[in-house]
Amino acid sequence: MAQLSVQDKLGILADAAKYDASCASSGTVKRNSAGGKGIGSTEGMGICHAYAPDGRCISLLKILLTNSCIFDCHYCINRKSSNVRRARFTAKEVVDLTLSFYRRNYIEGLFLSSGIIGSSDYTMEQIVEVARALREDHDFRGYIHLKTIPDADPALVEAAGRHADRVSINVELPTERGLKRLAPEKSQPRIEGAMGAMHRAIEDGGDARRRYRSAPRFAPAGQSTQMIVGADSATDGDIVLRASQLYGRFGLRRVYYSAFSPIPEASAVLPLQRPPLMREHRLYQSDWLMRFYGYRPDEVAEAADPATGMLPLDIDPKLAWALKFRDRFPVDVNRAPREMLLRVPGLGVKAVNAILSTRRWRQLRIADIARLTVSVNKVRPFLIAADWRPVMLSDQADLRRFVSPRAEQLELFAA
Protein backbone atom coordinates (compact mmCIF):
# COMPACT_ATOMS: atom_id res chain seq x y z
CA MET A 1 0.00 0.00 0.00
CA ALA A 2 1.44 3.38 -1.02
CA GLN A 3 2.29 5.83 1.75
CA LEU A 4 -0.63 8.22 2.16
CA SER A 5 -1.00 11.38 4.20
CA VAL A 6 -3.58 11.53 6.96
CA GLN A 7 -5.63 13.89 4.80
CA ASP A 8 -5.59 11.40 1.90
CA LYS A 9 -6.64 8.60 4.24
CA LEU A 10 -9.43 10.72 5.63
CA GLY A 11 -10.78 11.38 2.14
CA ILE A 12 -10.81 7.65 1.30
CA LEU A 13 -12.07 6.27 4.61
CA ALA A 14 -14.71 8.94 5.29
CA ASP A 15 -16.17 8.30 1.84
CA ALA A 16 -16.06 4.52 2.39
CA ALA A 17 -18.06 4.93 5.63
CA LYS A 18 -21.07 6.50 3.89
CA TYR A 19 -22.73 3.11 3.44
CA ASP A 20 -23.15 2.73 7.21
CA ALA A 21 -26.56 4.16 8.04
CA SER A 22 -26.71 3.43 11.77
CA CYS A 23 -25.03 6.53 13.13
CA ALA A 24 -27.74 8.13 15.27
CA SER A 25 -26.55 9.35 18.66
CA SER A 26 -29.77 9.08 20.64
CA GLY A 27 -30.30 7.47 23.99
CA THR A 28 -26.96 7.99 25.69
CA VAL A 29 -26.24 9.62 29.05
CA LYS A 30 -25.36 13.29 29.48
CA ARG A 31 -21.68 14.04 29.95
CA ASN A 32 -19.73 17.27 29.70
CA SER A 33 -16.37 18.79 30.52
CA ALA A 34 -17.67 21.60 32.72
CA GLY A 35 -15.23 22.56 35.45
CA GLY A 36 -12.20 21.82 33.33
CA LYS A 37 -12.44 18.04 33.66
CA GLY A 38 -11.95 15.98 30.53
CA ILE A 39 -12.73 16.96 26.98
CA GLY A 40 -15.94 16.71 24.98
CA SER A 41 -19.65 16.54 25.66
CA THR A 42 -22.75 14.66 24.57
CA GLU A 43 -24.90 17.73 25.12
CA GLY A 44 -23.64 20.24 22.54
CA MET A 45 -25.13 21.26 19.22
CA GLY A 46 -23.55 20.31 16.09
CA ILE A 47 -19.11 15.06 8.88
CA CYS A 48 -22.33 13.11 9.94
CA HIS A 49 -25.41 14.73 11.42
CA ALA A 50 -27.40 12.63 13.88
CA TYR A 51 -30.39 13.74 15.92
CA ALA A 52 -31.06 13.08 19.57
CA PRO A 53 -34.63 12.50 20.88
CA ASP A 54 -34.92 16.12 22.01
CA GLY A 55 -34.10 17.40 18.52
CA ARG A 56 -30.46 18.31 19.12
CA CYS A 57 -28.20 17.87 16.10
CA ILE A 58 -24.97 16.10 16.99
CA SER A 59 -22.13 15.92 14.48
CA LEU A 60 -20.09 12.73 14.36
CA LEU A 61 -16.77 12.04 12.69
CA LYS A 62 -17.82 9.01 10.63
CA ILE A 63 -14.91 6.97 9.28
CA LEU A 64 -13.56 3.47 8.75
CA LEU A 65 -10.38 2.33 10.43
CA THR A 66 -9.59 0.68 7.08
CA ASN A 67 -11.43 -0.21 3.88
CA SER A 68 -9.23 -3.25 3.33
CA CYS A 69 -11.02 -6.52 4.06
CA ILE A 70 -10.32 -10.24 3.99
CA PHE A 71 -13.99 -11.00 3.25
CA ASP A 72 -15.50 -10.98 -0.23
CA CYS A 73 -19.17 -10.08 0.36
CA HIS A 74 -20.79 -9.54 -3.04
CA TYR A 75 -22.69 -6.37 -2.06
CA CYS A 76 -19.76 -4.55 -0.42
CA ILE A 77 -17.73 -1.89 -2.22
CA ASN A 78 -14.78 -2.72 0.08
CA ARG A 79 -14.83 -6.47 -0.55
CA LYS A 80 -11.50 -8.26 -1.07
CA SER A 81 -11.90 -8.50 -4.85
CA SER A 82 -13.03 -4.89 -5.33
CA ASN A 83 -10.72 -2.58 -7.28
CA VAL A 84 -10.85 0.43 -4.96
CA ARG A 85 -8.13 2.59 -3.49
CA ARG A 86 -7.22 1.23 -0.06
CA ALA A 87 -6.17 3.09 3.07
CA ARG A 88 -5.70 2.38 6.75
CA PHE A 89 -5.55 4.51 9.86
CA THR A 90 -3.55 3.64 12.93
CA ALA A 91 -5.44 3.82 16.23
CA LYS A 92 -3.40 6.89 17.21
CA GLU A 93 -4.31 8.69 13.98
CA VAL A 94 -8.03 8.19 14.63
CA VAL A 95 -7.62 9.45 18.21
CA ASP A 96 -5.69 12.53 17.07
CA LEU A 97 -8.23 13.28 14.32
CA THR A 98 -11.15 13.00 16.73
CA LEU A 99 -9.58 15.32 19.29
CA SER A 100 -8.41 17.76 16.62
CA PHE A 101 -11.86 18.00 15.02
CA TYR A 102 -13.52 18.34 18.41
CA ARG A 103 -11.25 21.22 19.43
CA ARG A 104 -12.18 22.98 16.19
CA ASN A 105 -15.87 22.51 17.06
CA TYR A 106 -16.47 20.38 13.97
CA ILE A 107 -17.81 17.31 15.78
CA GLU A 108 -19.29 16.09 19.03
CA GLY A 109 -18.41 12.42 18.71
CA LEU A 110 -17.01 9.51 16.73
CA PHE A 111 -18.61 6.77 14.64
CA LEU A 112 -15.99 4.11 13.88
CA SER A 113 -16.34 1.02 11.73
CA SER A 114 -13.83 -1.04 9.78
CA GLY A 115 -13.12 -3.70 7.22
CA ILE A 116 -11.43 -6.86 8.51
CA ILE A 117 -7.63 -6.75 8.39
CA GLY A 118 -5.45 -9.67 9.47
CA SER A 119 -8.16 -11.25 11.58
CA SER A 120 -11.38 -10.33 13.33
CA ASP A 121 -9.61 -10.24 16.72
CA TYR A 122 -6.80 -7.98 15.48
CA THR A 123 -9.26 -5.54 13.89
CA MET A 124 -11.44 -5.48 17.00
CA GLU A 125 -8.37 -4.82 19.14
CA GLN A 126 -7.57 -1.73 17.06
CA ILE A 127 -11.16 -0.44 17.26
CA VAL A 128 -11.26 -0.93 21.04
CA GLU A 129 -7.87 0.74 21.41
CA VAL A 130 -9.22 3.91 19.76
CA ALA A 131 -12.11 4.10 22.23
CA ARG A 132 -9.90 3.17 25.20
CA ALA A 133 -7.33 5.84 24.38
CA LEU A 134 -9.99 8.51 23.95
CA ARG A 135 -11.71 7.65 27.23
CA GLU A 136 -8.76 6.78 29.48
CA ASP A 137 -5.78 8.70 28.08
CA HIS A 138 -7.63 11.87 27.05
CA ASP A 139 -10.77 11.71 29.22
CA PHE A 140 -12.92 12.26 26.11
CA ARG A 141 -16.57 12.63 27.15
CA GLY A 142 -18.16 12.95 23.73
CA TYR A 143 -20.27 10.33 21.99
CA ILE A 144 -18.63 7.15 20.66
CA HIS A 145 -20.36 4.56 18.47
CA LEU A 146 -18.38 1.44 17.58
CA LYS A 147 -19.22 -1.15 14.95
CA THR A 148 -18.23 -4.50 16.42
CA ILE A 149 -17.21 -7.70 14.64
CA PRO A 150 -19.26 -10.83 15.40
CA ASP A 151 -16.33 -13.23 14.86
CA ALA A 152 -14.09 -11.40 17.34
CA ASP A 153 -13.31 -12.70 20.81
CA PRO A 154 -16.30 -11.98 23.11
CA ALA A 155 -13.94 -10.32 25.60
CA LEU A 156 -12.99 -7.74 22.94
CA VAL A 157 -16.63 -7.07 22.03
CA GLU A 158 -17.41 -6.67 25.73
CA ALA A 159 -14.51 -4.22 26.06
CA ALA A 160 -16.06 -2.13 23.27
CA GLY A 161 -19.23 -1.80 25.34
CA ARG A 162 -17.27 -0.47 28.32
CA HIS A 163 -15.89 2.46 26.31
CA ALA A 164 -18.62 3.18 23.73
CA ASP A 165 -21.99 4.82 24.15
CA ARG A 166 -23.52 2.59 21.50
CA VAL A 167 -22.36 -0.58 19.78
CA SER A 168 -23.78 -2.13 16.65
CA ILE A 169 -23.46 -5.48 14.93
CA ASN A 170 -24.80 -5.63 11.37
CA VAL A 171 -27.07 -8.54 10.43
CA GLU A 172 -26.27 -7.50 6.83
CA LEU A 173 -29.24 -9.16 5.07
CA PRO A 174 -32.82 -9.93 6.17
CA THR A 175 -32.72 -13.69 5.54
CA GLU A 176 -30.23 -16.45 6.23
CA ARG A 177 -30.68 -17.60 2.63
CA GLY A 178 -29.60 -14.19 1.34
CA LEU A 179 -26.62 -14.07 3.69
CA LYS A 180 -25.37 -17.48 2.54
CA ARG A 181 -25.71 -16.44 -1.09
CA LEU A 182 -24.17 -12.96 -0.93
CA ALA A 183 -21.84 -13.20 2.07
CA PRO A 184 -20.91 -16.89 2.44
CA GLU A 185 -18.03 -16.12 4.82
CA LYS A 186 -20.47 -14.68 7.36
CA SER A 187 -22.77 -16.73 9.57
CA GLN A 188 -26.17 -15.76 10.90
CA PRO A 189 -25.77 -17.91 14.06
CA ARG A 190 -22.45 -16.19 14.84
CA ILE A 191 -23.94 -12.75 14.25
CA GLU A 192 -26.95 -13.48 16.45
CA GLY A 193 -24.72 -15.09 19.08
CA ALA A 194 -22.68 -11.89 19.33
CA MET A 195 -25.84 -9.76 19.49
CA GLY A 196 -27.22 -11.98 22.24
CA ALA A 197 -24.00 -11.75 24.26
CA MET A 198 -24.01 -7.95 23.93
CA HIS A 199 -27.68 -7.82 24.97
CA ARG A 200 -26.94 -9.83 28.12
CA ALA A 201 -23.93 -7.63 28.92
CA ILE A 202 -26.04 -4.47 28.55
CA GLU A 203 -28.73 -5.92 30.83
CA ASP A 204 -26.10 -6.95 33.40
CA GLY A 205 -24.59 -3.47 33.25
CA GLY A 206 -27.99 -1.88 33.79
CA ASP A 207 -28.69 -4.19 36.73
CA ALA A 208 -25.31 -3.33 38.28
CA ARG A 209 -26.07 0.40 37.93
CA ARG A 210 -29.39 -0.08 39.72
CA ARG A 211 -27.67 -1.89 42.59
CA TYR A 212 -24.48 0.16 42.84
CA ARG A 213 -24.27 3.80 41.81
CA SER A 214 -20.50 3.50 41.34
CA ALA A 215 -20.81 0.70 38.76
CA PRO A 216 -19.44 1.72 35.34
CA ARG A 217 -21.89 2.34 32.54
CA PHE A 218 -21.98 -0.25 29.79
CA ALA A 219 -23.11 0.86 26.30
CA PRO A 220 -25.72 3.24 27.77
CA ALA A 221 -27.21 3.96 24.32
CA GLY A 222 -27.71 0.23 23.71
CA GLN A 223 -27.05 -1.63 20.48
CA SER A 224 -28.37 -1.28 16.96
CA THR A 225 -28.07 -3.11 13.65
CA GLN A 226 -28.38 -2.51 9.93
CA MET A 227 -29.70 -4.60 7.06
CA ILE A 228 -29.40 -4.08 3.32
CA VAL A 229 -32.66 -3.77 1.39
CA GLY A 230 -32.99 -4.85 -2.21
CA ALA A 231 -29.82 -6.89 -2.65
CA ASP A 232 -31.67 -10.19 -2.30
CA SER A 233 -35.20 -11.45 -2.85
CA ALA A 234 -36.50 -10.68 0.64
CA THR A 235 -39.90 -8.94 0.58
CA ASP A 236 -40.96 -6.04 2.78
CA GLY A 237 -43.03 -8.51 4.78
CA ASP A 238 -39.92 -10.63 5.40
CA ILE A 239 -37.95 -7.56 6.49
CA VAL A 240 -40.65 -6.33 8.88
CA LEU A 241 -40.92 -9.73 10.56
CA ARG A 242 -37.12 -10.01 10.81
CA ALA A 243 -36.84 -6.56 12.39
CA SER A 244 -39.51 -7.46 14.92
CA GLN A 245 -37.61 -10.61 15.89
CA LEU A 246 -34.42 -8.59 16.38
CA TYR A 247 -36.17 -6.04 18.60
CA GLY A 248 -37.77 -8.78 20.68
CA ARG A 249 -34.78 -11.09 21.09
CA PHE A 250 -31.96 -8.60 21.48
CA GLY A 251 -33.58 -5.45 22.86
CA LEU A 252 -32.23 -3.31 20.02
CA ARG A 253 -32.60 0.46 20.10
CA ARG A 254 -32.84 0.71 16.33
CA VAL A 255 -32.88 -1.37 13.19
CA TYR A 256 -31.55 0.65 10.24
CA TYR A 257 -32.40 -0.05 6.62
CA SER A 258 -29.98 0.73 3.81
CA ALA A 259 -31.17 0.55 0.20
CA PHE A 260 -28.77 -1.50 -1.89
CA SER A 261 -26.66 0.64 -4.18
CA PRO A 262 -25.03 -0.88 -7.29
CA ILE A 263 -21.26 -0.93 -7.01
CA PRO A 264 -18.49 -0.89 -9.66
CA GLU A 265 -17.52 -4.27 -11.11
CA ALA A 266 -20.45 -5.88 -9.31
CA SER A 267 -20.97 -9.61 -9.03
CA ALA A 268 -23.42 -11.21 -11.44
CA VAL A 269 -25.60 -12.39 -8.54
CA LEU A 270 -26.52 -8.81 -7.61
CA PRO A 271 -29.47 -6.89 -9.10
CA LEU A 272 -28.57 -4.41 -11.83
CA GLN A 273 -30.66 -1.57 -10.38
CA ARG A 274 -31.05 -0.21 -6.89
CA PRO A 275 -34.48 -0.44 -5.24
CA PRO A 276 -36.53 2.77 -4.99
CA LEU A 277 -35.40 4.91 -2.07
CA MET A 278 -39.07 5.21 -1.18
CA ARG A 279 -38.99 1.52 -0.26
CA GLU A 280 -36.39 2.26 2.39
CA HIS A 281 -38.58 5.12 3.64
CA ARG A 282 -41.67 2.90 3.87
CA LEU A 283 -39.71 0.36 5.91
CA TYR A 284 -38.69 3.06 8.37
CA GLN A 285 -42.35 4.07 8.66
CA SER A 286 -43.29 0.44 9.28
CA ASP A 287 -40.60 0.28 11.95
CA TRP A 288 -42.17 3.33 13.61
CA LEU A 289 -45.60 1.68 13.59
CA MET A 290 -44.26 -1.28 15.55
CA ARG A 291 -42.21 0.79 17.99
CA PHE A 292 -44.57 3.67 18.76
CA TYR A 293 -48.06 2.90 17.44
CA GLY A 294 -48.72 -0.55 18.86
CA TYR A 295 -48.88 -2.48 15.58
CA ARG A 296 -47.90 -6.12 15.63
CA PRO A 297 -45.45 -7.20 12.90
CA ASP A 298 -48.07 -9.39 11.27
CA GLU A 299 -50.42 -6.38 11.11
CA VAL A 300 -47.77 -4.28 9.38
CA ALA A 301 -47.14 -7.14 6.97
CA GLU A 302 -50.88 -7.16 6.20
CA ALA A 303 -50.49 -3.69 4.70
CA ALA A 304 -48.27 -5.20 2.01
CA ASP A 305 -49.53 -6.53 -1.30
CA PRO A 306 -50.51 -10.19 -0.67
CA ALA A 307 -49.12 -11.26 -4.04
CA THR A 308 -45.69 -9.58 -3.87
CA GLY A 309 -45.22 -8.99 -0.15
CA MET A 310 -44.21 -5.39 -0.90
CA LEU A 311 -45.54 -2.28 0.81
CA PRO A 312 -47.15 0.29 -1.49
CA LEU A 313 -44.81 3.11 -2.47
CA ASP A 314 -47.46 5.77 -3.15
CA ILE A 315 -49.04 5.73 0.33
CA ASP A 316 -47.65 5.13 3.81
CA PRO A 317 -48.13 1.74 5.57
CA LYS A 318 -50.53 3.17 8.16
CA LEU A 319 -52.89 4.44 5.47
CA ALA A 320 -52.52 1.20 3.53
CA TRP A 321 -53.54 -0.79 6.61
CA ALA A 322 -56.54 1.47 7.29
CA LEU A 323 -57.75 1.15 3.69
CA LYS A 324 -57.45 -2.63 3.91
CA PHE A 325 -59.40 -2.82 7.19
CA ARG A 326 -62.07 -0.21 6.65
CA ASP A 327 -64.45 -2.08 8.96
CA ARG A 328 -62.40 -0.74 11.94
CA PHE A 329 -63.25 2.85 11.00
CA PRO A 330 -64.44 5.53 11.53
CA VAL A 331 -63.48 5.96 15.19
CA ASP A 332 -64.95 8.59 17.50
CA VAL A 333 -62.23 10.99 18.63
CA ASN A 334 -64.27 11.85 21.72
CA ARG A 335 -64.68 8.23 22.87
CA ALA A 336 -62.21 5.89 21.17
CA PRO A 337 -59.33 4.40 23.22
CA ARG A 338 -55.77 5.49 22.62
CA GLU A 339 -54.82 2.34 20.68
CA MET A 340 -57.54 3.00 18.06
CA LEU A 341 -56.78 6.71 17.77
CA LEU A 342 -53.15 5.81 17.00
CA ARG A 343 -54.40 3.84 13.99
CA VAL A 344 -56.14 6.80 12.37
CA PRO A 345 -54.08 7.86 9.32
CA GLY A 346 -52.72 11.36 9.76
CA LEU A 347 -52.73 11.32 13.59
CA GLY A 348 -49.33 11.02 15.25
CA VAL A 349 -48.46 10.25 18.85
CA LYS A 350 -48.40 13.92 19.87
CA ALA A 351 -51.76 14.58 18.21
CA VAL A 352 -53.34 11.59 19.98
CA ASN A 353 -51.93 12.73 23.33
CA ALA A 354 -53.41 16.19 22.72
CA ILE A 355 -56.80 14.66 21.85
CA LEU A 356 -56.85 12.54 25.01
CA SER A 357 -55.90 15.53 27.15
CA THR A 358 -58.40 17.95 25.57
CA ARG A 359 -61.46 15.71 25.44
CA ARG A 360 -61.50 15.46 29.21
CA TRP A 361 -62.79 19.04 29.25
CA ARG A 362 -64.81 19.44 26.07
CA GLN A 363 -66.06 17.77 22.88
CA LEU A 364 -63.64 17.92 19.96
CA ARG A 365 -64.80 19.24 16.60
CA ILE A 366 -63.27 18.63 13.17
CA ALA A 367 -61.66 22.09 13.28
CA ASP A 368 -59.82 21.05 16.45
CA ILE A 369 -58.47 17.96 14.69
CA ALA A 370 -57.40 20.07 11.70
CA ARG A 371 -55.06 22.02 13.99
CA LEU A 372 -53.33 18.79 15.03
CA THR A 373 -52.57 17.29 11.63
CA VAL A 374 -50.88 18.31 8.40
CA SER A 375 -53.75 17.13 6.19
CA VAL A 376 -57.26 17.05 7.59
CA ASN A 377 -58.51 15.58 4.29
CA LYS A 378 -56.51 12.43 5.02
CA VAL A 379 -58.15 12.14 8.45
CA ARG A 380 -61.79 12.89 7.57
CA PRO A 381 -62.83 9.43 6.27
CA PHE A 382 -61.52 7.66 9.36
CA LEU A 383 -62.96 9.57 12.31
CA ILE A 384 -66.09 10.97 13.89
CA ALA A 385 -66.09 14.32 15.70
CA ALA A 386 -68.77 16.36 17.46
CA ASP A 387 -69.74 18.07 14.20
CA TRP A 388 -68.46 15.53 11.67
CA ARG A 389 -69.53 12.08 10.48
CA PRO A 390 -68.06 10.74 7.18
CA VAL A 391 -71.29 9.25 5.84
CA MET A 392 -70.50 9.68 2.14
CA LEU A 393 -66.71 9.31 2.35
CA SER A 394 -66.66 6.08 4.33
CA ASP A 395 -68.86 4.40 1.70
CA GLN A 396 -66.66 5.40 -1.25
CA ALA A 397 -65.51 2.36 -3.20
CA ASP A 398 -62.41 4.20 -4.42
CA LEU A 399 -61.54 5.88 -1.13
CA ARG A 400 -57.82 5.48 -1.83
CA ARG A 401 -58.09 8.04 -4.64
CA PHE A 402 -59.42 10.65 -2.20
CA VAL A 403 -56.81 10.16 0.53
CA SER A 404 -53.66 9.43 -1.49
CA PRO A 405 -51.24 12.35 -1.77
CA ARG A 406 -51.34 14.00 -5.17
CA ALA A 407 -48.27 13.75 -7.35
CA GLU A 408 -46.75 17.17 -7.98
CA GLN A 409 -44.16 18.24 -10.52
CA LEU A 410 -41.39 20.06 -8.69
CA GLU A 411 -39.90 23.23 -10.19
CA LEU A 412 -36.18 23.00 -10.81
CA PHE A 413 -35.55 26.72 -10.23
CA ALA A 414 -38.32 27.41 -7.69
CA ALA A 415 -37.43 30.02 -5.09
From TrEMBL:
Q: Which UniProt keywords apply?
A: Iron, Iron-sulfur, Metal-binding, S-adenosyl-L-methionine
Q: Which InterPro entries match?
A: Aldolase_TIM, DNA_rSAM_put, Elp3/MiaA/NifB-like_rSAM, Endo/Exo/Phosphatase_dom_1, rSAM, rSAM_sf, RuvA_2-like
Q: Which Pfam families match?
A: Radical_SAM (PF04055)
Gene Ontology MF annotations: catalytic activity; iron-sulfur cluster binding; metal ion binding
Q: Where is the Elp3/MiaA/NifB-like radical SAM core domain?
A: 59-286
Q: Which cofactor does it need?
A: [4Fe-4S] cluster
Q: Which CDD domains match?
A: Radical_SAM
Checking NCBIfam families in the record gives: rSAM_link_UDG
Q: What is this protein called?
A: Putative DNA modification/repair radical SAM protein
